[in-house]
Structure formats: C-alpha cells, structure tokens
Amino acid sequence: MIELVPLSWDLIWLAAPVIFLAGLVHGTFGIGFPMVATPLIALFTDVFTAVLICVVPTMSVNLTTIWHGGRAQLRNVRPYLLIIPFALLGTVTGTFLLLWLDPRPFLLLLAVAVLLYLNQDRLQSIEFSWVRNHTLPAYILFGTTAGLMAGMVNVMLPVLIILFMELRIATATMVVLFNLNFFTGKLTQSLIFMQQDIPGIGLFLLRTLLLAPFALTSLFIGMQLRKRFTAERYVTLLRGLLWVIAGILIVRFIVAYT
C-alpha cells in the first residue's frame, strides 16, 4: 500500500510558487498547468505526491479557463468530444498503473515522442497528417495515450497538442478542448484516489485547496498576456513550449535516477 507523504505547511509553501508559475503559463497559453507544476514539484517530493498536490489546483484552473472560453467555444468543441471517452479510459488505466508501478520510465518515453513530433520534418518516415483522414483511429490512439500519461505522470498536453495541431483546430476551440479533457481526467483520477485504502488522502486533497488561489491569481495575469498574441504567434510559442516541456521531462527522468 502507498504511504502518503503528509501535506505539511513546509510542502505547501514550497509548492505555492511552482503553482503560481504554472498558473501563469496556463493563463498565457490556455494550457500547461499540470505539465509545468508536476515535474517541478516532483523535484522535492515523489511523483505520486506531486500528482496529488496538482489535482485540485488543476481542476480549478481548467474550469475557469473553460468558463472564460464562453458558450460559443463550447459549441465549437462538440465535433471533437468523441476523444474524451478514450482519454478517460487511458486515465483510469494510467491511474492504477501509478498506484502499482514505477512511473519514471514513462517520462523519458513521452519526451522522446515530443521530440519526434518536433523534428518530423527531418524524419521523412514519421509524419502525422494521416489523422485528418482517419479521425476515429486517431482519437483512440492519441486519446488513450494522453489519458494513460495523464494518469501516470500528470502529463496529457504534448500528446493532445500533436493531435489538435494536425487537425487544424482553431486556437480558441483548442484551448477549451484541452481543458475539458484535463478536467474530466483529473476529476476521474481524484475519484479513483478517494476509493483507495490510503489513509489521510481525503484530508490531503482538501488541504490542496489552499493552493488554488495562487493558481487562479496567476491564471488571470496570464490571460491578459495572451490577448497580445495572434494565432500564428500562438502556434509558434506552442512549439517553443513543447521544446521546453521535452527538456523538463528529460531532466526529471535523469534526476529521478540519480
């Protein structure tokens, strides 16, 4: 059985600036909160504890971003909602693997996948344009993989970016769709955690509410920054963010084994 690290005040204050930074990134790009927060928090605690700390702040950021997108964008995401059941299937599987296995090797696997995507123009045999003609298989593959990674290491973003950029989804719609997938995945994961025989997990999750104000404050600051970006600039910055994410994953993998 997993032994839960107590969420002490020292751990809360260590996590708070990381949560603030992740909220700022999420507000600026509309995505990225768990991708930034989880590996950084895991530098001073274990992966499971880092995932738990991020659950409630992530859901608060996701809901706020979805609400900020408005009803118009919620209508626009309907054609793409078929991915959510596959993402949830992957999340459930990944969450149980997190409870049973060592998730560290999957950090390197995901970093390699991101680097392959970013360098696909140099690798003639690897390309993703097929997803536009075969959307259902793409939803199954990318949705399940994204959920699996989200469940194990709290990292869904790179997999979904690859899919949604290839589908040429409008930026505003993409942001809402990202956050719908994140929110449903984190809600499902939190319910699974609550069903486990892990003493103190309910109180642990409740105390992470103290971190939500840090996330939401920086989220709104980031949203103001995002208004300055054109769609083309956004895509360029998104690719830059993927390079940063790949670096963080590789560093996290190295640190985990030293």
Tell me about this structure.
This protein has one domain (9-256). 76% of the residues lie in helices and 0% in strands. It has helices at residues 9-29, 33-41, 47-76, 83-100, 104-118, 135-153, 157-166, 171-195, 201-207, 212-226, 231-256.
Secondary structure layout plus pairing:
Blueprint: H1 9-29, H2 33-41, H3 47-76, H4 83-100, H5 104-118, H6 135-153, H7 157-166, H8 171-195, H9 201-207, H10 212-226, H11 231-256
Summarize the structure.
Belongs to the 4-toluene sulfonate uptake permease (TSUP) (TC 2.A.102) family. By secondary structure, the chain is an all-alpha fold.
Task: Supply database-style keywords.
11 helices, transmembrane helix, TM_pro_TauE-like, TSUP
Give the CA-CA distance, first to last residue: 25 Å
Count of helical stretches: 11
Based on CA atoms alone, the radius of gyration comes out at 17 Å
What characteristic shape results from the CA principal axes? globular
